[in-house]
Amino acid sequence: MVWTDLANDAHEADITARRPPGVDQYFLADFVSVRAMSTWYMSVTRSGAQYSYGLLLQGGNLYRHSTLTGTRRVTATKLGSGWTSFKSIATSRYGAPAPAPAHAFLYGLNSNGNLYRYAANGTGYRSYGVFGGFKSFKTMAVISELRAYDTLLMTTTAGALYSIRIPVTATAKPVVRMIRSGGWSSFESLLVDRCGSNGASVVVGIDHNTDSGYQYGVSRMNGTATAIVSYGKVPVVFNGVTHASRTDSQLEGD
Predict the structure, then answer these.
(1) pLDDT of residue 100
(2) pTM of the prediction?
(3) Are 60 and 89 in contact (CB under 8 A)?
Protein backbone atom coordinates (compact mmCIF):
# COMPACT_ATOMS: atom_id res chain seq x y z
CA MET A 1 0.00 0.00 0.00
CA VAL A 2 1.02 3.63 -0.55
CA TRP A 3 -0.06 6.67 1.45
CA THR A 4 0.69 10.38 1.59
CA ASP A 5 0.79 12.56 4.69
CA LEU A 6 0.44 16.19 5.71
CA ALA A 7 4.17 16.72 5.07
CA ASN A 8 3.54 15.70 1.41
CA ASP A 9 5.70 12.61 1.77
CA ALA A 10 4.79 9.29 0.17
CA HIS A 11 5.30 6.07 2.12
CA GLU A 12 4.89 2.43 1.16
CA ALA A 13 4.29 -0.74 3.15
CA ASP A 14 3.99 -4.41 2.27
CA ILE A 15 1.29 -5.84 4.53
CA THR A 16 1.03 -9.58 5.14
CA ALA A 17 -2.46 -11.03 5.55
CA ARG A 18 -2.34 -12.64 8.98
CA ARG A 19 -3.46 -12.00 12.56
CA PRO A 20 -1.97 -9.60 13.55
CA PRO A 21 -1.00 -8.12 10.15
CA GLY A 22 2.71 -8.13 9.32
CA VAL A 23 4.31 -4.98 7.86
CA ASP A 24 7.50 -3.98 6.03
CA GLN A 25 7.42 -0.18 5.82
CA TYR A 26 9.70 2.35 4.09
CA PHE A 27 9.86 5.94 2.85
CA LEU A 28 9.03 6.26 -0.86
CA ALA A 29 9.48 9.88 -2.00
CA ASP A 30 9.05 13.58 -1.33
CA PHE A 31 5.67 13.88 -2.99
CA VAL A 32 2.98 16.52 -3.60
CA SER A 33 -0.21 17.46 -1.76
CA VAL A 34 -2.99 14.95 -2.45
CA ARG A 35 -6.75 15.12 -1.96
CA ALA A 36 -7.45 11.71 -3.52
CA MET A 37 -5.46 9.27 -5.64
CA SER A 38 -5.79 6.06 -7.60
CA THR A 39 -3.72 2.89 -7.87
CA TRP A 40 0.05 3.20 -8.32
CA TYR A 41 1.20 1.16 -11.32
CA MET A 42 4.75 -0.09 -11.83
CA SER A 43 6.68 0.25 -15.09
CA VAL A 44 10.20 0.60 -16.53
CA THR A 45 11.66 3.40 -18.65
CA ARG A 46 13.47 2.75 -21.94
CA SER A 47 16.75 3.03 -20.07
CA GLY A 48 15.65 0.36 -17.58
CA ALA A 49 14.80 2.60 -14.60
CA GLN A 50 11.83 1.52 -12.51
CA TYR A 51 9.06 4.03 -11.82
CA SER A 52 5.52 4.24 -10.49
CA TYR A 53 2.66 6.23 -12.00
CA GLY A 54 -0.99 6.94 -11.32
CA LEU A 55 -3.63 9.66 -10.99
CA LEU A 56 -4.29 12.11 -8.18
CA LEU A 57 -6.55 15.03 -7.33
CA GLN A 58 -5.07 18.27 -6.09
CA GLY A 59 -7.80 20.80 -5.39
CA GLY A 60 -9.98 20.85 -8.49
CA ASN A 61 -7.35 19.45 -10.83
CA LEU A 62 -6.59 15.93 -12.07
CA TYR A 63 -2.90 15.05 -12.43
CA ARG A 64 -0.90 12.08 -13.63
CA HIS A 65 2.19 11.54 -11.50
CA SER A 66 5.37 9.65 -12.35
CA THR A 67 7.75 8.68 -9.53
CA LEU A 68 11.22 7.30 -10.26
CA THR A 69 12.12 4.62 -7.73
CA GLY A 70 15.88 5.13 -7.60
CA THR A 71 16.08 8.93 -7.47
CA ARG A 72 12.65 9.43 -5.83
CA ARG A 73 12.03 12.18 -8.38
CA VAL A 74 8.35 13.05 -8.82
CA THR A 75 6.77 14.75 -11.83
CA ALA A 76 3.09 15.66 -12.13
CA THR A 77 1.29 16.47 -15.39
CA LYS A 78 -2.07 18.23 -15.32
CA LEU A 79 -4.76 16.35 -17.25
CA GLY A 80 -7.76 18.59 -16.57
CA SER A 81 -9.72 20.81 -14.21
CA GLY A 82 -13.27 20.69 -12.86
CA TRP A 83 -12.68 17.97 -10.26
CA THR A 84 -13.49 19.97 -7.12
CA SER A 85 -16.74 18.10 -6.43
CA PHE A 86 -15.24 14.62 -6.78
CA LYS A 87 -14.89 12.76 -3.48
CA SER A 88 -12.93 9.71 -4.60
CA ILE A 89 -11.26 8.30 -7.72
CA ALA A 90 -10.28 4.76 -8.71
CA THR A 91 -8.73 3.18 -11.78
CA SER A 92 -8.96 -0.23 -13.41
CA ARG A 93 -6.50 -1.69 -15.89
CA TYR A 94 -7.42 -5.05 -17.37
CA GLY A 95 -4.85 -6.52 -19.73
CA ALA A 96 -5.42 -9.73 -21.65
CA PRO A 97 -3.43 -11.62 -24.29
CA ALA A 98 -4.51 -10.76 -27.85
CA PRO A 99 -7.08 -11.03 -29.31
CA ALA A 100 -9.02 -10.66 -26.06
CA PRO A 101 -10.03 -7.02 -25.42
CA ALA A 102 -8.40 -4.92 -22.72
CA HIS A 103 -9.71 -1.86 -20.92
CA ALA A 104 -8.47 0.95 -18.69
CA PHE A 105 -11.02 3.12 -16.87
CA LEU A 106 -11.03 6.02 -14.43
CA TYR A 107 -13.99 6.16 -12.02
CA GLY A 108 -14.94 9.38 -10.23
CA LEU A 109 -17.42 9.55 -7.33
CA ASN A 110 -19.05 12.98 -7.35
CA SER A 111 -20.84 14.76 -4.51
CA ASN A 112 -23.76 15.38 -6.92
CA GLY A 113 -24.68 11.70 -6.56
CA ASN A 114 -23.23 10.48 -9.85
CA LEU A 115 -20.50 7.96 -10.53
CA TYR A 116 -18.59 8.96 -13.67
CA ARG A 117 -16.54 6.62 -15.85
CA TYR A 118 -13.80 7.68 -18.25
CA ALA A 119 -11.90 5.53 -20.74
CA ALA A 120 -8.17 5.94 -21.30
CA ASN A 121 -7.58 7.85 -24.52
CA GLY A 122 -3.91 8.30 -25.32
CA THR A 123 -2.44 10.43 -22.53
CA GLY A 124 -5.88 11.52 -21.29
CA TYR A 125 -9.41 10.24 -20.69
CA ARG A 126 -12.76 10.54 -22.46
CA SER A 127 -16.24 10.28 -21.01
CA TYR A 128 -17.55 6.71 -20.99
CA GLY A 129 -20.77 6.77 -19.01
CA VAL A 130 -22.40 8.30 -15.96
CA PHE A 131 -24.42 6.42 -13.34
CA GLY A 132 -26.84 7.99 -10.87
CA GLY A 133 -27.90 6.92 -7.39
CA PHE A 134 -24.59 7.30 -5.52
CA LYS A 135 -25.34 10.35 -3.36
CA SER A 136 -24.91 8.45 -0.08
CA PHE A 137 -21.60 6.84 -1.03
CA LYS A 138 -18.34 7.98 0.53
CA THR A 139 -15.30 6.21 -0.89
CA MET A 140 -14.37 3.37 -3.24
CA ALA A 141 -11.70 1.06 -4.62
CA VAL A 142 -11.56 -1.40 -7.50
CA ILE A 143 -11.82 -5.00 -6.26
CA SER A 144 -12.10 -6.80 -9.59
CA GLU A 145 -10.82 -6.20 -13.14
CA LEU A 146 -12.13 -8.80 -15.55
CA ARG A 147 -12.64 -8.92 -19.31
CA ALA A 148 -16.36 -8.17 -19.22
CA TYR A 149 -16.67 -5.91 -16.17
CA ASP A 150 -15.05 -4.09 -13.28
CA THR A 151 -16.29 -4.29 -9.70
CA LEU A 152 -15.95 -1.45 -7.21
CA LEU A 153 -15.99 -1.86 -3.44
CA MET A 154 -17.78 1.17 -1.97
CA THR A 155 -18.89 2.45 1.42
CA THR A 156 -21.70 4.81 2.35
CA THR A 157 -21.51 7.65 4.85
CA ALA A 158 -23.73 5.53 7.14
CA GLY A 159 -21.14 2.71 7.04
CA ALA A 160 -22.68 0.18 4.66
CA LEU A 161 -20.40 -1.79 2.33
CA TYR A 162 -21.43 -2.49 -1.28
CA SER A 163 -20.10 -4.13 -4.43
CA ILE A 164 -20.80 -2.29 -7.71
CA ARG A 165 -20.35 -4.44 -10.80
CA ILE A 166 -20.04 -2.34 -13.98
CA PRO A 167 -19.93 -4.03 -17.42
CA VAL A 168 -17.36 -2.60 -19.82
CA THR A 169 -19.94 -1.70 -22.49
CA ALA A 170 -20.67 2.03 -22.49
CA THR A 171 -24.46 1.75 -22.13
CA ALA A 172 -24.56 -0.98 -19.46
CA LYS A 173 -25.97 -0.29 -15.99
CA PRO A 174 -24.19 -1.15 -12.71
CA VAL A 175 -25.29 -4.08 -10.55
CA VAL A 176 -25.41 -2.84 -6.95
CA ARG A 177 -25.30 -5.37 -4.09
CA MET A 178 -25.05 -4.79 -0.34
CA ILE A 179 -22.33 -6.74 1.45
CA ARG A 180 -22.73 -5.35 4.97
CA SER A 181 -25.32 -2.91 6.32
CA GLY A 182 -22.92 -1.14 8.70
CA GLY A 183 -19.54 -1.02 10.39
CA TRP A 184 -17.48 0.75 7.68
CA SER A 185 -18.25 4.42 8.30
CA SER A 186 -14.87 5.39 9.77
CA PHE A 187 -12.83 4.66 6.64
CA GLU A 188 -11.88 7.43 4.22
CA SER A 189 -9.64 5.18 2.07
CA LEU A 190 -10.10 1.58 0.95
CA LEU A 191 -7.20 -0.50 -0.36
CA VAL A 192 -7.66 -3.84 -2.09
CA ASP A 193 -5.17 -6.49 -3.15
CA ARG A 194 -5.60 -10.05 -4.35
CA CYS A 195 -5.13 -12.97 -2.01
CA GLY A 196 -4.26 -16.22 -3.77
CA SER A 197 -5.94 -17.49 -6.92
CA ASN A 198 -9.48 -18.20 -5.67
CA GLY A 199 -10.89 -14.69 -6.07
CA ALA A 200 -10.35 -13.73 -2.42
CA SER A 201 -9.05 -10.26 -1.56
CA VAL A 202 -7.26 -8.43 1.23
CA VAL A 203 -8.92 -5.12 2.11
CA VAL A 204 -7.38 -2.41 4.29
CA GLY A 205 -9.61 0.39 5.55
CA ILE A 206 -7.82 3.61 6.52
CA ASP A 207 -9.29 5.99 9.10
CA HIS A 208 -7.74 9.40 8.39
CA ASN A 209 -9.06 10.86 11.66
CA THR A 210 -7.18 8.42 13.88
CA ASP A 211 -4.28 7.66 11.46
CA SER A 212 -5.02 3.96 11.69
CA GLY A 213 -5.74 1.08 9.33
CA TYR A 214 -7.52 -2.26 9.70
CA GLN A 215 -7.04 -5.35 7.56
CA TYR A 216 -9.72 -7.80 6.40
CA GLY A 217 -9.81 -10.97 4.36
CA VAL A 218 -12.75 -10.90 1.94
CA SER A 219 -14.08 -13.81 -0.11
CA ARG A 220 -15.31 -13.53 -3.68
CA MET A 221 -18.19 -11.04 -3.87
CA ASN A 222 -21.55 -12.68 -3.07
CA GLY A 223 -23.77 -10.01 -1.57
CA THR A 224 -24.50 -10.41 2.14
CA ALA A 225 -23.14 -13.99 1.95
CA THR A 226 -19.64 -12.60 1.29
CA ALA A 227 -17.31 -13.85 4.03
CA ILE A 228 -15.22 -11.20 5.82
CA VAL A 229 -12.51 -12.02 8.38
CA SER A 230 -10.93 -9.28 10.49
CA TYR A 231 -7.14 -9.53 10.89
CA GLY A 232 -6.95 -6.50 13.16
CA LYS A 233 -5.17 -3.17 13.28
CA VAL A 234 -2.24 -2.62 10.92
CA PRO A 235 0.89 -1.77 12.98
CA VAL A 236 1.73 1.41 11.06
CA VAL A 237 1.87 5.01 12.32
CA PHE A 238 0.40 6.99 9.43
CA ASN A 239 1.22 10.48 10.81
CA GLY A 240 -1.52 12.55 9.20
CA VAL A 241 -2.52 10.37 6.26
CA THR A 242 -4.18 12.42 3.48
CA HIS A 243 -4.96 9.51 1.17
CA ALA A 244 -3.96 5.91 0.61
CA SER A 245 -3.94 3.55 -2.36
CA ARG A 246 -2.74 0.13 -3.35
CA THR A 247 0.17 -0.75 -5.60
CA ASP A 248 -0.39 -2.58 -8.85
CA SER A 249 -1.69 -6.13 -9.16
CA GLN A 250 -4.41 -7.67 -11.33
CA LEU A 251 -7.58 -7.98 -9.24
CA GLU A 252 -10.04 -10.85 -9.52
CA GLY A 253 -12.18 -10.45 -6.39
CA ASP A 254 -15.56 -10.99 -8.04
Answers:
(1) 73
(2) 0.94
(3) no
